[in-house]
Write a structure and sequence with these properties.
The chain is of the alpha+beta class. Strands 1, 3, 6, 9, 10, 11 and 12 form a seven-stranded mixed sheet that branches. The relative contact order is 0.14. Helices cover 44% and strands 28% of the residues. It is rod-shaped, with a radius of gyration of 56 Å. It has six helices and twelve strands.
């Protein structure tokens, strides 16, 4: 009957299905594989992967942030070190400039000349008498004729009386002789003095050299001129009974505001063999020779080695370095603040996801 046939067909269908289930029905694993192939995942696996990502992402982010922070600290330290070096360099540059400015160095040059300006030879004979004064050339002095007696002379001589410049205010009498000028022909001035040696404890005549004899002749106040010379120039002496040969050299020193002239000298002393009668030997004789040592005039110039332009250039470089360092520090601070805000933003986002 129809109902029984349907029941039997249903049972056969079920049996066929059972057989198919036993032989051809896929397992759970193959079903999962199929789902994966289709691009779907099990919800449990998705949750597990999300947990792994959440666990690993903060660690990686922390390591990158740590490296960046360490790198930033190192850069800040390097720039602080460079800034300290720049400040020290600026201080050292300014100190060197001020030191060189206050302590100029001397530059020595030698100028060759054919003629010197005739110097002034100021002699202070005291009680001694000038017997003769002559110009000679080529280092030749003729033999003495009647030593101790007045001789013919060709020197230009000026006598000046004045009051000494120092505290004792003593009266001074200077016999000023025009000195030699022709250095190429070995011009010299030979002078002879006589003094009664019984009147003095020591037999010596003091003399002084100044730059130009013409300055005295052209001066309107010769006494004041000689007073200034005695205040500024050195004094020397030559002794009786000898021939003192003085070789002069001129040194000009140019200072910051003035120019100074100084004489340097070398002297050689030779004993005079007195052949006069004994009655005349009571008068001590003095012989002096003045000539130029060589045709070179020494010039000393005070030079300030501090170069303002080089110092300004160094300071500009230092200030540029300081400006760059300050700009970098500002950018670094901004970057740190930005990274801090980003870190707090990510942290808040993670907390919201966990909640």
């Amino acid at each position: 009957m129809p109902g029984k046939e349907n029941t039997r067909f249903y049972q056969e269908f079920n049996d066929d299905d059972d057989e198919d289930d036993e032989g051809n029905t896929p397992s759970q694993d193959s079903f999962d594989d199929t789902i994966e192939e289709l691009g779907h995942e099990d919800p449990n696996n998705i949750i597990a992967q999300e947990d792994d990502i959440r666990g690993s992402s903060p660690t990686m982010r922390f390591s990158k942030t740590c490296v960046k922070n360490v790198f930033t600290v190192v850069l800040i330290f390097i720039y602080l070190l460079l800034t300290a070096v720049a400040v020290f360099l600026a201080y050292q540059t300014i100190s060197d400039f001020l030191e060189k400015l206050s302590q100029p160095v001397m530059s020595v040059t030698y100028k060759e000349v054919d003629l010197f300006s005739p110097p002034g030879i100021a002699l202070y004979p005291g009680n001694a008498q000038l017997l003769g004064c002559r110009h000679h050339f080529h280092n030749y002095i003729p033999p003495l004729v009647d030593p101790g007696k007045p001789q013919e002379g060709d020197c230009e001589i000026t006598q000046v009386n004045y009051i000494g410049p120092f505290t004792n205010q003593t009266a001074r009498r200077a016999v000023v002789v025009r000195g030699p000028s022709d250095v190429r022909n070995k011009e010299l001035v030979f002078m002879q003095f006589s003094q009664n040696e019984t009147e003095e404890d020591f037999s010596a005549i003091t003399y002084m050299l100044f730059a130009k004899f013409s300055d005295l002749i052209e001066s309107s106040n010769k006494s004041e001129f000689m007073r200034d010379c005695e205040r500024n120039y050195s004094m020397w002496t030559f002794s009786g009974g000898f021939r003192t040969w003085v070789k002069m050299s001129l040194v000009k020193t140019s200072g910051k505001s003035e120019e100074a002239v100084e004489f340097r000298q070398e002297s050689a002393v030779v004993k005079f063999n007195d052949k006069r009668p004994e009655a005349q030997q009571t008068n001590q004789l003095f012989f002096a020779v003045f000539e130029w040592r060589d045709p070179y005039m020494q010039e000393i110039t005070l030079i300030v080695t501090a170069n303002p332009w080089s110092s300004v250039a160094i300071l500009c470089g230092v200030f540029m370095a300081l400006f760059k360092a300050a700009n970098f520090a500002k950018l670094t601070v901004k970057w740190i603040i930005k990274m801090r805000k980003r870190h707090l933003k990510h942290k808040a986002r993670e907390l919201n996801q966990i909640n």
